[in-house]
Design a protein that fits this description.
A three-stranded antiparallel sheet has the order 2-1-3. It has one domain: Orthogonal Bundle (Arc Repressor Mutant, subunit A). It has 121 residues and is mainly alpha-helical. The termini are far apart. It is built from five helices and three strands.
Length: 121
C-alpha cells in the first residue's frame, strides 16, 4: 500500500489492474519479447498515458522487452497495452523471422568432407 504523497510503484497490483483495465492476458496477438514495435500514429489528447509513452518510444523499431524496461512495467502488462494499440492500428508489430523447420540444411557428410579438406591445408 502506498502512503499519501508517495508515488505508486510500477509493480503495485492495484496500479497494474488499473493500467490494463483488469485484463490479465493480451488479446489474440502473441507478442514475443523480441517482436519489434513501430508507431504508426502520434499520441492523441486524452489517450492513456502508457499508450502515449509507447507511441513516443516506438517512433523507431523497439523490442517489446525494451518497451517494458522503459515503462518500468512487466512484459505481460506491456503486451496487453500493445494489443490495444495494435487493434486500434496505432502500431505495427514485426515478428522475428525464424528458419522454417523444413528448411533444407547442407548435407552433414559434405560438411565433414569440407572440414577434412580444410584440415589438410
Amino acid at each position: 500500500m502506498t502512503r499519501v504523497g508517495q508515488p505508486a510503484r510500477d509493480d503495485d497490483p492495484d496500479r497494474l489492474y488499473t493500467v490494463t483495465g483488469g485484463r490479465s492476458q493480451a488479446p489474440q496477438h502473441a507478442f514475443d519479447v523480441v517482436t519489434l514495435i513501430v508507431s504508426e500514429d502520434e499520441p492523441q489528447p486524452g489517450m492513456q498515458s502508457e499508450h502515449a509513452r509507447i507511441l513516443r518510444l516506438c517512433a523507431r523499431p523497439t523490442a517489446v522487452v525494451e518497451v517494458a524496461a522503459e515503462l518500468g512495467l512487466p512484459v505481460s502488462v506491456v503486451k496487453i497495452l500493445l494489443g490495444d494499440l495494435l487493434e486500434a492500428g496505432r502500431i505495427t508489430a514485426r515478428h522475428p523471422r525464424f528458419v522454417p523447420a523444413q528448411a533444407k540444411l547442407p548435407d552433414l557428410d559434405m560438411l565433414k568432407q569440407v572440414l577434412h579438406g580444410l584440415q589438410k591445408l
